[in-house]
Amino acid sequence: MPRFAHDSEHRFARILDFYGVQWEYEPVEFALEWGQNGQPISGFRPDFWLPEPGLFVELTTLNQKLVTKKNGKVRRLGQLYPDVRVTLLYQRDTLALLAKYGLSGEARSSGAIARTA
Questions:
Q1: Residue 62 — pLDDT band, cuts 50, 70, 90?
Q2: Half-sphere CA count of 52, side-chain side, radius 13 A
Q3: Is residue 107 part of a domain?
Q4: Contact residues for 116 (Cβ-Cβ < 8 A; gap 6+)
Q5: Which residue from 5, 24, 97, 98 puts its CA 20 to 30 A from 62's CA?
Q6: Which are the contacts of 95, defined by CB distance < 8 A and separation ≥ 6?
Q7: Domain count, the chain
Q8: Per-residue model confidence as pLDDT tens digits over 26-57
Q9: Ramachandran class of 9: left when φ > 0, alpha when ψ lies in -120 to 50, beta otherwise
Q10: Inside any domain, residue 1
């Protein structure tokens, strides 16, 4: 099991495991901005890659400043990489998933309807 940055990621991975969904944690970083020398200076690394159905999933927290920043990165990713599918799961979405699958007792600090970019 990888070392997750947030408990909500660990809980989401448990849901995926329970249902036999293959996943990878933060497998790729997409460059979003480049410096004058052509080297990436800004990037975005989605939390999960789901090979079937070919979808990246990014979880967010309640911190509005971070949500706004992530939304901007997902929009930029869509502009630069139009064939890459990314779904944002907001904290309320993750909480609903945890409740639906009987993990709501663990959800007090965690993130269910997805918005696909």
A1: low
A2: 5
A3: yes
A4: 85, 86, 87
A5: 24
A6: 104, 107, 110, 111, 112
A7: 1
A8: 999 999 999 999 999 999 999 999 999 999 99
A9: alpha
A10: no
